[in-house]
Amino acid sequence: MNDKITNWTRSDDAMVETAIRRGATRRELLQMMLAGGAALSAGSLVLGRAGNAVAATPVSGGTLRAAGWSASTADTLDPAKASLSTDYVRCCSFYNRLAFLDKGGTPQMELAEAIETKDAKTWTVKLRKGVTFHDGKPLTADDVIFSLKRHLDPSVGSKVAKIAAQMTGFKAVDKQTVEITLASPNADLPTILSMHHFMIVADGTTDFSKGNGTGAFVREVFEPGVRSVGIKNKNYWKSGPNVDSFEYFAISDDSSRVNALLSGDIHLAATINPRSMRLVESQGAGFVLSKTTSGNYTNLNMRLDMEPGSKRDFVEGMKYLVNREQIVKSALRGLGEVGNDQPVSPANFYHNPDLKPRAFDPEKAKFHFEKAGMLGQSIPVVASDAANSAVDMAMIIQASAAEIGLKLDVQRVPADGYWDNYWLKAPVHFGNINPRPTPDILFSLLYSSEAPWNESQYKSEKFDKMLIEARGSLDQERRKAIYNEMQVMVASEAGTIIPAYISNVDAITAKLKGLEANPLGGQMGYAFAEYVWLEA
């Protein structure tokens, strides 16, 4: 048998590296490589190469302290209700998922040993053995069924209830095997189960403030809107985490967050404003910028069911008024790609490259505003630092509006409470959407008629039917064609303007090691606490 590796790529190397970090056994790694086209005799060679890549030897010990940018008294350790990045970080540290997305965007197994199907409608999930919750309870099929069925209960208020609704049947085949039946075929199920909301909790849990999961850290402190502290899970089923404890809190003001990093109070300042980058870079080798472009965006939302968004010409005028290139250059300091007013980024396989961004055309904008009778009126636009670079974007749009006689009254409100009090509520306001791995998830969360985060209240029966059709198709090219058309519909019909896909920048101390990019967003897809370490 020769040592040739066929159809093996750098992304496959990345997959093996990620699996090693996740605690995969040698047998599991060899099975993974055989499936990818590696000859058995080449296994040691690949494992050695991957092992060397991982072996920037982690150091054990220390307290990791990090700051995000958003917090609320509604902060939660209930994965089903998580809505802020702060929630995601905490859920990733206290719980595990059945699967996770590696840095190449490929679903890998976590609490599940395998997630298999023959028809994309009936799925069999085989669980790992020997996994326990923080309270000592063994992980069983009942925990998985309870965790998934919760999303279907309206009283829970799950943020992914619309996505979970496709799961119509659950059966415990035995203590370590679950059968999931979907209403219709969906080949994306392993990717869906990789979302932060689908963390597995213990059967019957009602008090989520305890954070009783199977994850790397055991909750010691949780104060909503203030901070959380997790202690290393000494009975963790994987190797790790590397640090002894992990404290996480939010510093909403960008400058204050960066200064906390520079003064040594924290090891990571999440999602810093481009204006702060030069300050960090000027500090020399002691600090590092970690950049990720994975589909995160800040958007301007006009509710179509409220004035002025109920006037179609106002929405059209705003879309011509937004100078997307200037926003990338000035508001984002070049850290982004020009957007085309729909949420599927160029990094995604299903992105429609033929859908060109709306051209900046003040005269066309003026025509539509005159038609809508809006010139001379004052239009409130709610902006906040809670939505990354929203204030800078608002200033650019406001200046363009003033030149054609439209008065945009930019109302800058505090970051604290923004998501509870203004997002989804104000007639014209900014949002900030974290990366999602599939068009189905993005459209289900944000644009279907019953989407929980339907920011502009976009309603289209045709769109809803296309969403179901694409979800059930096993023909990749057919799915791509449907998703391409849906992107055109969102860009032309919805009341959302997505001027750019933002490159997320986390600022870290050079002592923090092991941080990698992930398609689910910055801070290593919000799961960094389990994998990083602190150099002495």
CATH class of the largest domain: Alpha Beta
Question: Low-confidence parts, pLDDT < 50 over ≥5 residues?
Answer: 1-8
Major β-sheet annotation: 8 strands, mixed
Please report the distance between the alpha carbons of the first and last residues.
46 Å
Q: Assign the CATH topology of the largest domain.
A: Dipeptide-binding Protein, domain 3
Query: What is the helical fraction, as a range of percent?
Result: 25-40%
CATH H level, superfamily name of the largest domain: Dipeptide-binding Protein, Domain 3
Overall structural domain count: 4
Structural class: alpha+beta
Principal-axes shape call? globular
CATH second-level architecture of the largest domain: Roll
Q: DSSP helix count?
A: 18
Strand content: 15-25%
- Averaged pLDDT: 90
Rg estimate, integer Å: 23 Å
Number of strands: 21
GO molecular function: peptide transmembrane transporter activity
Protein name: ABC transporter, periplasmic solute-binding protein
Organism: Sinorhizobium meliloti (strain SM11)
Family: Belongs to the bacterial solute-binding protein 5 family.
Question: How would you sum up this structure, described in words?
Answer:
The structure is a single chain. The protein folds into 4 domains: 8-49, no CATH class; 60-91 and 214-285 and 509-535, Periplasmic binding protein-like II (D-Maltodextrin-Binding Protein, domain 2, 3-Layer(aba) Sandwich), CATH 3.40.190; 95-207, Dipeptide-binding Protein, domain 1, CATH 3.90.76.10; 295-500, Roll (Dipeptide-binding Protein, domain 3). The protein has 18 helices and 21 strands. α1 crosses α3 (43-54), α10 packs antiparallel against α12 and α11 packs across α13 (390-403). It has helices spanning 10-21, 26-35, 43-54, 85-94, 141-149, 161-164, 189-192, 254-262, 274-281, 312-321, 324-331, 362-372, 390-403, 418-421, 439-446, 461-472, 476-493, 522-525, and strands at 63-68, 99-101, 107-109, 112-117, 122-127, 167-174, 177-182, 217-223, 227-232, 245-250, 268-269, 287-293, 297-302, 336-338, 378-383, 407-412, 428-433, 496-497, 500-509, 512-513, 533-534. The strands form 6 sheets. Strands 1, 8, 9, 10, 11, 12, 14 and 19 form an 8-stranded mixed β-sheet that branches. The chain has a 4-stranded antiparallel β-sheet with strand order 4-5-7-6, with helices on one face. A 3-stranded antiparallel β-sheet has the order 17-13-18, covered by helices on one side.
